[in-house]
Design goal:
Elements: H1 11-16, H2 19-59, H3 63-83, H4 90-103, H5 107-120, H6 124-140, H7 144-155, H8 161-178
Helix pairs in contact: 2-3, 2-4, 3-4, 4-5, 4-6, 5-6, 6-7, 6-8, 7-8
């Protein structure tokens, strides 16, 4: 096998391989699997770092820098979700992408991404958070009735304190627009 590239097409061929040949075949396959896992992790790490930098820039009134950071998050997380939807990081990437779209006031995109995040959610708490994020986008899209419903359903879950506060605020906005 070393120096040769060919397909092993049946079980008899596999049985005839020597241990050194097996290592030559299996080791690169294992390394490829490990490396691809690292690629997903690194992409998620980079997206998370960019998101944190965007939040810091917002807090320091550096709106242009924040927008650039959130654009970076959208691109990086979007690649994870788009290219590797079954990755163990796909749901986290979808949530990060949705949050970045909300910060950049990309309401239609956030509305759609929140739906996708909800589909990828593995826990009911995450599904509720996705509904809340979709509700935030719905408020800005002037769909207050839908927003109120989504936000109220999200509040029924045990959310993190900052998410709960943000969702409560937007539900108040939705209810003001209902009147």
């Amino acid at each position: 096998l070393p120096g040769q590239v060919r397909a092993i097409t049946d079980a008899q061929e596999w049985r005839r391989l020597k241990p050194s040949d097996l290592r030559a075949v299996l080791l690169p396959m294992a390394l490829t699997a490990v490396a691809s896992g690292c690629v997903y992790f690194n992409a998620m790490y980079d997206a998370g770092q960019a998101y944190d930098a965007g939040i810091t820039a917002l807090q320091e009134d550096q709106d242009q820098l924040a927008r650039q950071q959130f654009d970076s998050v959208i691109a990086k997380a979007g690649r994870i979700v788009g290219n590797h939807p079954s990755s163990k990081y796909a749901d986290d990437a979808a949530f990060l992408k949705t949050r970045a779209e909300i910060h950049n006031k990309l309401w239609e995109a956030a509305f759609t991404s929140a739906d996708y995040a909800r589909q990828l959610s593995k826990q009911s708490r995450d599904s509720a958070l996705a509904a809340g994020l979709k509700g935030i986008a719905a408020v800005q899209l002037e769909r207050p009735l839908l927003a109120d419903s989504l936000l109220s359903s999200a509040l029924a879950a045990d959310l993190a304190a900052d998410d709960r506060a943000n969702i409560l605020f937007h539900r108040g906005l939705a209810r003001l627009r209902l009147d």
